[in-house]
Amino acid sequence: MKTMRLPHAKPRARRWTRDEYYQMAELGWFQDQRVELIEGRIVQMPPQTELHYSTIHRTSTILSGVFGKDHVVRSQAPMSIAATSDPEPDIAVVRGALEDFTEHPTTALLVVEVSLTTLLFDRRKAGLYAKADVQDHWIINLPDRQLEVRRDPMADETKPFGFTYRTTTIYKPGETAAPLAAPGARIAIDNLLPPKA
Fold it and tell me: pLDDT of 70-87, one tens digit each?
């Protein structure tokens, strides 16, 4: 009896599109959950602490003052980066007025992540923002009490999402930083960080 030879096939993860992700949300799949679509994967985020929230609020207020009425400072709102990615950065600064947007923006002048328990994930996600040509990416690193500023996005197949930032600069308390899109601003790192306990 002749045996049948079948081709070898490896199981693989099924990646979701942004349209499918929104359909699932409309059906209530993510009720009471914080999730993001990252390169086709649905990632569940940890519950938000008061320290995380208050840092986002404080930073959003500072950036609203820096950028003024010709910009929108979006907090925890989606960015439609690709057909398979819909991250929700803690803060994204986009040019224009709220009424200008009928869809989520696809890039931003500045993206800020506040990291308390998700530092490794946020550093990895930097490649996604580099891929979206976000020129200025900040991580407020709460455990180490510092600001990590990434700039100059570039393609790099060895990095997550195939992109990275060419430069990373660390700012500590006592120093100031300025967004690329508002070079005249001087933001004190101490004002971004919560007071020491």
Answer: 999 999 999 998 888 889
